[in-house]
C-alpha cells in the first residue's frame, strides 16, 4: 500500500505542523490552487516527493524547461517555477512512489486568466496526454520498466463534467475527462477546484472502475496499485 496525502485549493495550517497527518505519507499530491511554499513544507515535513498540477489561480508554468544545467525559459537561465523539488505532471504521465500518475491541470476558460482552457483546448491536451501515456509504456517495456497499462491516479484540478462539478461556468467540469478515464483506466481521479463550503461531497463513480475524489482541504488515503484497493485514512473538506 502507498500512503498518499492529497491537497487542493485551501491551506490547512495544522498540516504544516504535522497535525492531522496519520503515519508517514509516501507521496504528496497537489491538485492546484495552493501556495507553492505550502507544498514544499508538506513535502519536506513528510520527506515525501510531491507531484502536482497547476490550478487556475496558480502562476503560468508553461515555457519552462529543465536541462542538465538547470531551468531555462526562452533560452535564458531561471529559477524552478514551481514548488522546489516538485514534479509537474501537467500533460504527462510520471511514475513516483510506485504509482503511475497522469496529470491535467487548469480549469474551464471564464475570464482569460492563466491555466484556463476552452473545451477544444483541453480536449487536445487530453489527447496528447493519452498519446504520451502510450509512449511512456512503450519506453518502459523496452527498458525493463512496467508494461501495466492502467494509470493509478489521474490528477486534475477540475472535475469531469457531471461528476462533482458546478453549474456555474468557472466550476463546470470537462467532458473530455470521460474518454480520458476510459483510456487511462485510473483507480482514482483526484481533483480540487469545487469548494464544498461546509458540505461533504461524495466520492463518485466515473467510468467502469474509477472513483472521482474531491480533495479540497485534504484527503489522506492508502492505495494498492496491484489490487486497486483504496482506503481513506483521514480527510477534511474546506470550510
Automatic annotation (TrEMBL):
SUPFAM superfamilies named among the record's database cross-references: Metallo-dependent phosphatases
Pfam families recorded: Metallophos (PF00149)
Top-level division of the source organism's lineage: Bacteria
Domain Calcineurin-like phosphoesterase: 21-197
Name of the protein this chain belongs to: Metallophosphoesterase
Organism in which the protein naturally occurs: Gordonia westfalica
Amino acid at each position: 500500500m502507498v500512503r498518499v496525502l492529497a491537497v487542493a485549493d485551501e491551506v490547512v495550517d495544522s498540516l504544516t505542523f504535522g497535525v492531522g497527518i496519520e503515519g508517514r505519507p509516501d507521496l504528496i499530491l497537489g491538485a492546484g490552487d495552493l501556495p507553492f511554499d505550502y507544498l514544499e513544507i508538506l513535502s519536506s515535513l513528510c520527506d515525501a516527493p510531491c507531484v502536482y498540477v497547476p490550478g487556475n489561480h496558480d502562476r503560468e508554468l508553461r515555457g519552462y524547461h529543465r536541462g542538465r544545467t538547470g531551468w531555462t525559459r526562452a533560452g535564458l537561465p531561471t529559477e524552478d517555477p514551481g514548488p522546489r523539488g516538485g514534479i509537474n505532471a501537467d500533460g504527462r504521465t510520471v511514475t513516483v512512489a510506485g504509482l503511475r500518475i497522469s496529470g491535467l491541470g487548469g480549469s474551464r476558460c471564464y475570464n482569460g486568466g492563466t491555466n484556463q482552457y476552452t473545451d477544444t483546448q483541453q480536449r487536445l491536451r487530453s489527447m496528447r496526454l493519452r498519446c504520451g501515456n502510450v509512449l511512456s509504456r512503450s519506453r518502459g517495456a523496452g527498458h525493463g520498466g512496467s508494461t501495466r497499462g492502467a494509470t493509478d491516479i489521474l490528477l486534475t484540478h477540475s472535475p469531469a463534467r457531471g461528476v462533482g462539478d458546478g453549474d456555474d461556468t468557472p466550476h463546470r467540469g470537462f467532458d473530455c475527462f470521460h474518454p480520458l478515464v476510459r483510456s487511462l483506466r485510473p483507480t482514482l481521479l483526484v481533483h480540487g477546484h469545487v469548494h464544498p463550503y461546509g458540505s461533504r461531497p461524495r466520492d463518485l463513480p466515473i467510468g467502469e472502475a474509477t472513483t472521482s475524489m474531491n480533495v479540497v482541504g485534504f484527503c489522506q488515503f492508502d492505495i494498492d496499485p496491484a489490487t486497486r484497493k483504496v482506503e481513506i485514512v483521514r480527510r477534511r473538506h474546506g470550510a
